[in-house]
Specification:
two-stranded antiparallel sheet
Amino acid sequence: MFTIDIVLKNVPLPLGVDRKEAEAAQALYQQLMDAMKAGSPQVMELTCDRQTDKKVAISTKEIIAVQLTDKDAGDTVTSRGGFFAQLVQQTSS
């Protein structure tokens, strides 16, 4: 299972959606990256493979970061939004 975490402006926790296949996860990651680069605001509706009734609509102009992680890789040290967790750990030492 792959998780795509999306960090939005002024929202303290990332939004996350899951994909079963690596190709689908990479495609969604690239779609989000392309939307961020485009600069023209649009609304994207995302669904989740793990919770099929889960839906979220986001404005692409509010995205500030996207993270793709492989939940099957066995990395239990990082939490959701791991790049922020690592940053906090480094700065608090």
